Amino acid sequence: MQESKNIAVVGSGLVGSLLAIYLRNRGHEVDVYDRRPDIRTIEFSGRSINLAMSLRGWLALEEVGVAEEVKKLAIRMDKRAIHLPGKPLYFQPYGKEGEAIYSISRGVLNKKMITLAEKAGARFIFESKVWDVDLDEAAIHTGKSENESRMSARYDHIFGADGAFSRVRHKMQRQSRFNYAQEFLNTGYKELTIPANADGSHKLEKHSLHIWPRGAFMLIALPNLDGSFTCTLFMPFEGAHSFESLDSDIKVQQFFEKHFPDVVEDIPSLLKEFFRNPTSALVTIKCFPWAYSDKVALVGDSAHAIVPFYGQGMNAGFEDIRVLNNLMNVHENDWHSIFRQYESERKPNTDAIAELSFRNFMEMSTKTADPQFILRKKIEGRFAAKHPDKWAPLYSRVTFSERPYAEALAEGDRQRAIMDRIMEIKNIADIWDSEEVEQRILGLLETTVPAEMWK
Amino acid sequence: MQESKNIAVVGSGLVGSLLAIYLRNRGHEVDVYDRRPDIRTIEFSGRSINLAMSLRGWLALEEVGVAEEVKKLAIRMDKRAIHLPGKPLYFQPYGKEGEAIYSISRGVLNKKMITLAEKAGARFIFESKVWDVDLDEAAIHTGKSENESRMSARYDHIFGADGAFSRVRHKMQRQSRFNYAQEFLNTGYKELTIPANADGSHKLEKHSLHIWPRGAFMLIALPNLDGSFTCTLFMPFEGAHSFESLDSDIKVQQFFEKHFPDVVEDIPSLLKEFFRNPTSALVTIKCFPWAYSDKVALVGDSAHAIVPFYGQGMNAGFEDIRVLNNLMNVHENDWHSIFRQYESERKPNTDAIAELSFRNFMEMSTKTADPQFILRKKIEGRFAAKHPDKWAPLYSRVTFSERPYAEALAEGDRQRAIMDRIMEIKNIADIWDSEEVEQRILGLLETTVPAEMWK
After folding, report:
1. What pLDDT, on a 0 to 100 scale, did the predictor assign at position A455?
2. Alpha-carbon distance B285 to nearest alpha carbon in chain A (angstroms)
3. Are A6-75+101-181+284-361 and A184-281 in the same CATH fold?
């Protein structure tokens, strides 16, 4: 019989709100703290990349019965739309017929999640910063500012869902033998907007994630329900093509006209947004352990922030919660075992998606325009279509499967090694769709061990 | 013409003291702060591994004319003495005739370095903790405790030589886009002592670094001038053979009698030391950048703490100082260029020695007892002796050379790939010293590119 507990969740973002719904459904008392005001009462910040919800995210929402409601806020994207300079637009389907990812505005989703958590009975305490956490006592000390009078509250358990620069994790870091790493990309990002047409329709093909790959920099655009697109420019902070170098209206205008001529007209507030919106950094954060005794645990970005190039940040955080919930079913009131198994099961998988996301940064910005890479993808695509049981594409393993990320990474490495051998064939460009190449791949598959086998 | 500057060095350890000597020799005013009392006035802590000074360390000392004086404190070690259970003791020379590393007690050396720095005119301010650093102003705020009145002092430049858990680096960490990683081994260590014989002589062969490799754990012993040996037991914190499991006198005694029967009698205070001395953690720390503007720079462990298994921690820190000094010769008063080139030149090399040190942990504890590994080393040794121009052993590149660590790592990887191929030869154990194997290595060397070429 499961006992009802008093639980604090620090952070009212997507993962914290979802966790609150799960915990309420299990009959616990839940207080969610956030240092910011209620996001439902304020304008959103203009420093966000649209979310791409995929299978792992949907499964976590379905389990608490809120998937349908969230889907109303999402736009289906079944393909990449690739804009190359001087070439016609072309489309790459993300998966098989019926498979798609879903574009959702972070702000819109967060508001909805908080409302759903409130409906489930969670209490939200906004504008209440957690200044200190007592790990042994599961007590938190909060207040509006450092000098104002503090409130203290003791719980049975505390979850840190307070993001990449987590205060809860910061407290755990002071333990001896706490592994921690933060690594920034030299590439930053800036949000821009393509507004809707006057009739509310989308200016670009609506059911696509649009990409303008340009080597060291890249523009992407994801659709919103209101007909607009949220664009993100990824570019190095310093160097030849960089945020630092684009320091005047004329330079920005010329840069966009030169590199993004097919879309520059669609961003009417380009200069205003470019200089008003912040240039944000991209960080990978890893740490271990994720939990302290049976008292405190980290979920989502506070445990494993990743770069956004696989669209899996939120999906991985939501999957944390589903895994936790399954372990609560197994271990019931034994929170020690819940937390130990949670961190040991999730850690290899979030390390894997961190690595895959970093690699996709390289792939999206440089390789999507490389003929050798396109040929490789064509060969893989042909083989996967003929032998779907033998060759699930890496992207599909990550995006349209609930198998562990670590397995996807290992299997992706195996496929890459096989394709390296195939691409070494001298006249591969001529015989890529031949029986010979197909047989060669089948042979190589037989002499290597699939990742599922050694898991 | 070089201008004299006012410079603060935070930390009076080995690297801080050496830096103070260098800076004084260049005509700067130098204040060295340390939160601890003067080490010359106190008993040393009992949580140290003896140092192994090798070429890089000696070169840095020679350049300021203190090598001879330090050598008086050191004992030459020209070989490993390997103690395997049930087998006769055997010796592995570290290098060629005349090459050796030198055992020095950390405490003894630190006292000498402070005295040498004082003699050079550096001011030491002990029991003065740096609570805060103003990076833009190069100002430090010090005091005996957090509540007592603080002193502030402004300098032209500040160096953080305050070790793995550096306060100066902590302040630099708050910048955006500061990369940082701390990773602990699951293995810890404990100091033990083999005292001298009654006549002051050493109980074990004096000119050797003694190793008792036992797989997951390992004992080492380094000689001291007074006839004693400083021993270090490396062992996992938790698990079957672990510090956690050895929780009683009888368990410790039985453990040593079983695994180290040839030396247990030589550690008369085993039980007392085992339970009195702390169990210390081993950490690798990486960060970047190492410098802030032309104001503040990190040196030694504060920039790059490594695990001790290559005996290069102090050597790498001393080499930082020699590199800095060379850059001060080149760039004179342009401290901005000094710091930029210092961090970009040193970072790949300290990353390389971090990796090599971690790998040597595996090698020392497990592989030194593995027949395949011993055969591999014999083949390499034979080839290196016949072709010294073609095959400098990795250990020698790290220990007896001043070429960059990154080159040693790359060249070591190339050699390892070649030896992997050689060890695949079916009857290698029978033909290891044949002309055929030698020719095969020569052939493989010709078809791969040495690391020097692409540097």
Report:
1. 40
2. 9
3. no
Tokens 């040996």 belong to B229
Task: Assess contact for A15 and A299: CB atoms under 8 A.
Answer: yes
Q: Which residue has the tokens 């740490």?
A: A287
Judged by average pLDDT, the poorest of A86-95, A295-304, B441-450 is B441-450
Instruction: Please judge whether A237 and B182 are an interchain contact, meaning their C-beta atoms are less than 8 angstroms apart.
Output: no
Instruction: Please check the confidence at residue A454 and state whether its pLDDT lies above 60.
Output: no
Q: How confident is the model at residue A13 (pLDDT cuts 50, 70, 90)?
A: very high
The whole-number pLDDT of residue A44 equals: 63
Round to whole Å and give the CA distance between B320 and A162: 38
List alpha helices for B49-105, DSSP H: 55-63, 67-71
Mapping DSSP to helix (H, G, I), strand (E, B) and coil, where does residue A354 land? helix
In angstroms, rounded to a whole number, what is the distance separating the alpha carbons of residues A7 and A159? 8
Going by the DSSP 8-state scheme, the letter that residue A278 receives in this structure is P
ipTM for this prediction: 0.86
Give whole-number Cα distances, B325 to A260, B121, B347, in Å: 48, 18, 16
Neighbouring-strand partners of residue B6: B29
List, for residues B371-395, the tens digit of each pLDDT value. 888 899 899 989 998 998 999 889 9
CATH code, residues A6-75+101-181+284-361: 3.50.50.60
Residue of B nearest to A183 (CA): B179
In this structure, the number of other CB atoms found within 10 A of the CB of residue B201 comes to 9
**Following DSSP, what letter does each residue of A55-118 receive, concatenated?**
HHHHHHHHTTT-HHHHHTT-EEE-EEEE--TTS--EEEESSSTT--EEEE-HHHHHHHHHHHHH
Record: contact B179-A178, CB cut-off 8 A:
no
Residues 6+ apart with CB under 8 A from A50: A103, A104, A105, A106, A222, A224, A230, A232
* CB of A427 less than 8 A from some CB of B: no
- Taking CB atoms and an 8 Å limit, are B181 and A181 in contact across chains? yes
CATH class of B6-74+105-181+283-361: alpha beta
For residue B56, pLDDT over 90 is answered with: yes
Alpha helices in B214-300 (DSSP H): 249-259, 270-276
The full set of domain ranges for chain B reads 6-74+105-181+283-361, 184-281, 370-454
**Structural tokens at position B357:** 């040190």
Q: From B261, B84, B292, B65, select the one nearest B175 (Cα to Cα).
A: B292
pLDDT at B368 over 70: no
What CATH code would you report for A184-281?
3.30.9.30
